[in-house]
Amino acid sequence: MNKDLTTDLLVVGGGAAGLCAAAEAAAAGVKVTVLDSDLHMGGQLVKQTHKFFGSKDEYAGTRGYKIAGILMDEIKELGDKIEMRVNTTCTGYYPEDGVYTAMKGEDEYYRIHAKKAVIATGAQERMLPFPNNDIPGVVGAGAVQTLMNVYGVLPGKKVLMVGAGNIGLIVSYQLTQAGVKVVGLVEAMPKIGGYWVHAAKIRRLGIPILLRHTILEAKGEDYVTGAVISEIDDKFQPIGKPQEIDCDVICMAVGLTPTTEIFWQAGAKMQFVPQLCGHVPFRDKTMRTSNPDLWVAGDAAGIEEASSAMVEGRIAGYSAAKALGKKMDAKKFDEYWARLDHLRAGEVGTKIRAGIAQVMVEGWEA
Amino acid sequence: MACNCTAEEKEKLFNSGVLTDNRPGAVLPPKELWENKKGGLVVIECPQRIPCNPCGTSCPSGAVVPFKDINDTPAIDYEKCTGCGMCVAKCPGLACFVIDLTYGPDKAVIKLPYELIPVPAKGDKVKCLNRTGEEVAEGEVLAVMQPFKDSTNVVSVVIPKKLVSDIRAIKVVR
Amino acid sequence: MELIQKHPILEFKHGKEVSFSFDGKELKGYEGEPIAVALTANGVRVFRVSPLMKRPRGFFCAIGKCSSCFMTVDGVPNVRTCVTPLAAGMKVETQKGKGLVPLETE
Hints:
The structure holds three protein chains of three kinds.
Chain A: E1 2-12, H1 16-27, E2 32-35, H2 64-77, E3 82-85, E4 88-94, E5 99-104, E6 108-119, E7 123-125, E8 138-140, H3 141-150, E9 158-162, H4 166-177, E10 181-187, H5 196-203, E11 209-211, E12 213-219, E13 226-232, E14 238-246, E15 249-252, E16 256-258, H6 261-266, E17 270-273, E18 278-281, E19 294-296, H7 306-323, H8 330-343, H9 350-357
Parallel strand pairs in A: 1-2, 1-6, 2-3, 6-19, 8-15, 9-10, 9-15, 10-11
Antiparallel strand pairs in A: 4-5, 5-6, 7-16, 12-13, 13-14, 17-18
Helix pairs in contact in A: 1-2, 1-7, 3-4, 4-5, 7-8
Chain B: H1 7-15, H2 31-36, E1 41-44, H3 54-58, H4 86-90, E2 96-100, E3 107-114, E4 125-129, E5 135-145, E6 153-160, E7 169-172
Chain C: E1 17-22, E2 25-30, H1 35-41, E3 48-49, E4 56-57, E5 70-73, E6 76-80, E7 91-93, E8 95-96
């Protein structure tokens, strides 16, 4: 089945940023179509059982998966202004005629004609090279969350977590809540990368966090039966005697990298920004890229947090609506930027601000 | 928080999420006030500046001083603290506790957040854990509440008074 | 099946339980949930074997971005089982090698 679809604003990605962009634009009267390759909307929000940090505006104190519900309710209020298509993957964007293609499952193909688009494709897990890192049992942390928190399936019995950033720390806690034993976390740096309170939570439950440690190899033939870890020095070289760890899951939480294929295909101006964890598109304050029809929001713009993804989504949705001729209240735009600046004002925002400074432009020519 | 470690060992512990001494955002209440306060006083262990303020916005009495900058570590006005435990239930980092030193001559009560199963019941004997998860004592559950009906339980546990600076978690044994 | 029976925060609502086949064996899973999840719940860990080095591959990213979970489903190869909903009677097979698209016979 092959079909043509027409819409005003295409939003690729129905996670925190995409849903906020869609809600913002539709409220202004724009016809919006949201695509998501997963079987439900909500992106990473639906798996977050922990309470969010931040301020009341960004739902601090509310569990992540409930925030997904709040956003979906907001969208439901907008009725048929927003069309949601799950299980639909955007497979390309052709700058020569501005057409998008998408696939649903193996049989349904769409050519989508949209005046503007917000690309909120999020991120994907990074990997560490070590022998046997490709066998079943070596899983991304996000995938473990999906199994446990969305579908109620146990990922395994004993987990070695690689990485003590926020994701490694939070997923270790969630594994414990699901009744899975976390044998420990290995972190290459001399201190945890995530919030101290997340680490304190799991240390109190007796879960070891081994700083300056890394995984040397995964053991097993058809699937993981164990791992070998080692202490490392400040040049990341193994020192001392390697340790054998009994586990059946090696959970990789070594960082995310933005998903940006559509921007590359669009010929948007890109840059590798270490602080934003990969290649990202240049953007102006409206979150518009060098391509006048494409906006970016969320992790696709740089790895950050759900709270900033939501505000960036609002800014992108607002700006796309404005570009489509809708009358918008400039005060809202300023308010959103104030919230974003506020979230990024502290020490934890220093890295992000340094990264964004490298790809933020005053404005575009056209 | 008696820790007989070197400065280097303390730094290493802190870097992996273990508090080894008082720091801004992670202090014990003033001794005299604490020893006489029926109902207990709040103890927050949040020594890192992160954008977060639900402890401040949830405190009904202003004991957790309203945040000027969302990145500030929590500051406490102990005179205003009633030991209600709202912050214990609200904190996304599970970093707030209420400790009452007036329970008995050598017993105290700690209110701590709990989000695991099995959920303890009043009268249960539980294992008390320190900041590295070691079992250091046995405690008795006085009460289990869920103030916001959002799956964060606030468990009141009777513990040995001499370990109030160490016990920060429980393990329910069935 | 390795399902979480009780959880401190979440309550799991599953759809209809259906039967499907995996390499000829009948298994049960929940309709509408990803095939890869149903296989994992049944203890299946190897989804495919890589073409050159014959490496076993399985569940990795769960969001359709990595290709580890490709299997042959109802004869169609390279199906992203982590984002493909399970249907009753589906024929799921371990994909050995690069996977061949079924050709039409004249």
